[in-house]
Specification:
Elements (H helix, E strand, L loop, with lengths): L1 E6 L8 E6 L7 E10 L2 H7 L16 E8 L11 E4 L2 E3 L5 H4 L11 E2 L19 E5 L4 E2 L7 H4 L5 H11 L7 E5 L5 H10 L3 E6 L5 H7 L3 E4 L3 H4 L6 E6 L8 H4 L2 E9 L12 H5 L4 E4 L5 H14 L5 E5 L3 H9 L6 E5 L7
Parallel strand pairs: 10-11, 10-13, 11-12, 13-14, 14-15, 16-17
Antiparallel strand pairs: 1-2, 3-4, 3-8, 3-17, 4-5, 5-9, 6-7
């Protein structure tokens, strides 16, 4: 099926209107008419070949919300008209230990990304959500229970939401836990909202005094300017868990020293250059851990969406027309967005 999309033909070219082909729904497929698509830093890195292996033309987008327009004959969980989401994954092997545990993001044979991932559909790799529609195996489609007026702000939950929810759940964040969130951006602002809703005492770390009020408004109980030793020192040895969302190389020791004995700092941002350190003695003396986490599997992503619907949680967004995509990328590089851009997919019809 011919589908209007926006994509790039090379890493140094702007995104532009292109026509792509979507397969007709197979027996277990769900066809989704895309209403909104969030913009992730991964989109920019892939389109501009800042990560290796980009195939062109590249159509990014893995924060997709829309409505079901067709289903295959064997589809049981969805019907035409349902409000659904598609996140970072559209396939995995389904037979390894990770897939069996509902952790498809750690598929031992390689998951299929929503864009730039291997597929039998022409041209041999996936096209993402900067498009009018997408066809996805039923298993990789998620139910959205938020009201219609919140759908645009739901879209970033499919990546930013699950990327922060998964480690918070894994390390059992909740009442009685003191939790730090480092960075107040697309990921960090979701981490603050989710940790607050889980009942933790939330401390937001920022390098900018100007973000203090914003962090409190998002749900932080305390805000610390991490460049100020006087503000950092009183928190030494007091955190059960720290979620570090910063994607730039920085001093990890400044935060591991804040962990309690047996505390963990989880990294979810991938820096362009390695972090300095860490000082192993800081970890040894206190049995502290530095860990990592990567998006989430299908069961946990559905759990996150249901949790957010129940607690009225959405992302803070700025809506754009698809024709503004390159401007949005440039602004993302300057951190000039609070806190996620979302594409109004209806504007593709004008492309």
């Amino acid at each position: 099926m011919n589908t209007k999309a926006y994509g790039a033909h090379a890493g140094d070219k702007p995104l532009e209107p292109i026509d792509i082909q979507r397969r007709a729904p197979g027996p277990r497929d769900v066809q989704v008419e895309i209403k909104y698509c969030g913009i992730c830093h991964s989109d920019l890195h892939t389109v501009r070949s800042e990560w290796p292996g980009t195939k062109y033309p590249c159509v990014p987008g893995h924060e997709i919300v829309g409505h079901v327009s067709a289903v295959g004959g064997e589809v049981k969980r969805f019907k035409v008209g349902d409000t659904v989401g598609v996140g970072c994954l559209v396939g995995s092997c389904q037979h390894c230990a990770s897939c069996a545990d509902g952790l498809e993001q750690y598929c031992e044979n390689g998951f299929v990304g929503t864009y730039n991932g291997p597929t039998q559909d022409p041209p041999g790799y996936t096209f993402g959500g900067y498009s009018q529609r997408i066809v996805v195996d039923e298993k990789f489609v998620l139910k959205i229970r938020h009201p219609e007026e919140q759908l645009a702000a739901v879209a970033p939950l499919l990546c930013a939401g699950i990327t922060t929810y998964s480690p918070l759940r894994h390390w059992k964040v909740g009442p009685g836990k003191k939790v730090g969130v480092v960075g107040i951006g697309g990921l960090g602002h979701m981490g603050i909202k989710l940790a607050h809703a889980m009942g933790a005492h939330v401390v937001a770390f920022t390098t900018s005094e100007s973000k203090r009020k914003d962090a409190h408004d998002l749900g932080a109980d305390e805000v610390v300017v991490s460049r100020d030793p006087a503000q950092m020192k009183p928190h030494g040895g007091s955190f059960h868990f720290i979620l570090n969302t910063v994607a730039a190389s920085h001093d990890l020791d400044a935060f591991t020293t804040l962990l309690k004995r047996d505390g963990t700092m989880c990294l979810v941002g991938a820096p362009e250059h390695p972090h300095p350190g860490p000082n192993v003695l800081v970890l040894i003396i206190g049995r502290k851990s530095i860990a990592g986490s990567f998006i989430g599997g299908l069961p946990e992503t559905q759990e996150m969406l249901d949790f957010c619907a129940e607690h009225g949680i959405v992302s803070d967004i700025e809506m754009i027309r698809i024709q503004q995509i390159d401007e949005a990328y440039d602004r993302m590089l300057k951190s000039d967005v609070k806190y996620r851009f979302v594409i109004d997919s209806a504007t593709l019809a004008q492309a």
